[in-house]
Design goal:
Blueprint (H helix, E strand, L loop, with lengths): L1 E7 L7 H16 L3 E6 L5 E6 L2 E6 L9 E8 L3 H15 L4 E6 L3
Antiparallel strand pairs: 1-5, 1-6, 2-5, 3-4
Length: 107
């Protein structure tokens, strides 16, 4: 099962300790073959909306900074519970904030 784990912006600025702990966590997931992809997201985006055959394209940013998704990890695990456990470990490292985990369907 694949899950997309997304993290929203936090008021806390990252420090060297956070970078070291996150680096070790990423190395662990990579070595275990669980981590498929990870990265940060730019606050700018492009919104495409189609309606009645018309396409509207708008440059971002769109959400308030505190609501924007700023990073992601795509993981392959055996169960939803395992994805939640990885999310719990991530939140323990980064501290206060919000993450969203969604199952990814398809091949």
């Amino acid at each position: 099962m694949r899950y997309l784990m997304m993290s929203k912006a936090s008021a806390t600025a990252p420090d060297e300790k956070l970078f070291a702990e996150m680096g070790a966590f990423i190395e662990e997931l990579t070595a275990a073959g669980v981590l498929l992809a990870t990265g940060g997201l730019a606050p700018e985006g492009i919104r495409l909306v189609s309606s009645g055959g018309e396409l509207t394209i708008t440059d971002g940013p769109f959400a308030e900074t505190k609501e924007a998704v700023v990073g992601f990890a795509l993981v392959e695990v055996r169960s939803k519970e395992e994805a939640v456990e990885l999310g719990r470990r991530f939140r323990t490292i980064v501290g206060d904030g919000e993450s969203v985990i969604q199952e990814v369907f398809g091949p």
